[in-house]
Amino acid sequence: MTPVTSLPKGASEYLVILLAAIPYGIVVNYIMLPHAVVGGGLTGLCEILYFATDSFVPIWLSQLVMNALFLFVACFTIGWRVCLRTVYCVLCLTLWLKLLPPVDQSPIADPLLALMLGGVLNGVGMAAIFLSHGSTGGTDILALIINKYKSWALGRILLAFDFVIMSSAWFLPQVHSVENICYALVYTFVATNTIDGVMYFWKNRVA
């Protein structure tokens, strides 16, 4: 009887990543965008671009382009082996963002309830991706690149990115409210704690 530290290996890992990316598309397009809530990371940056262009630049396109640029730089700095699984994850996330287009009105009218549920759903999905040795790319790649040349902790780098991105959303007319910023913080808190909880449970369960 040994602890299980990851999901099944091999081809099944890629299937898990594909399916685990579905909640991401649902949460972004059916919860965050309709409620005008901008999260952290690259997704938040893409949301800012989406709102700033009045939805002219879709989330799936900006995320794909920016991740491609980040990965291109990463190949020459942190190595192409690190990037291979990330490329697949990014394509899966982009696929569901494309196949599940944004809606004008969220299925869950109450924003606080919607964001809390979204945090749980996305947290479970992201945990499954991480347990399958996947990476969602985005600001994680930038943090790894910076960490290679500067002795800064990855967590602090990511926190700085999130703070700048979420603060910048204040200047968007669609997001300009204390409530929306608080909803973003609630979402981030629920999602990150869900990720930690799921991974802790899975890694400590007995096969």
Concise structural overview:
By secondary structure, this protein is mostly helical.
Structure in words:
The chain is mainly alpha-helical. The chain has one domain. The chain is about 70% helix and about 0% strand. The radius of gyration is 17 Å and the shape is globular. The N and C termini lie close together (about 5 Å). The model has no long low-confidence stretch (mean pLDDT about 85).
The helicity comes to 55-70%
Regarding quaternary structure, how should these chains be classified?
A: single chain
Number of structurally distinct domains: 1
Counting helices, strands and paired strands, the structural category is: mainly alpha
- Number of DSSP helices? 9
From N to C, what is the helix and strand string?
Answer: HHHHHHHHH
Count of distinct strands:
0
Could you report the average pLDDT, rounded to the nearest whole number?
Answer: 84
> Residue ranges: pLDDT <50 for 5 or more in a row?
none
Shape: globular
Could you give the distance between the termini?
Answer: 6 Å
Biggest sheet: strands, sense, closure?
none
What gyration radius follows from the Cα positions, in whole Å? Answer: 17 Å
Q: Beta-strand percentage?
A: under 5%
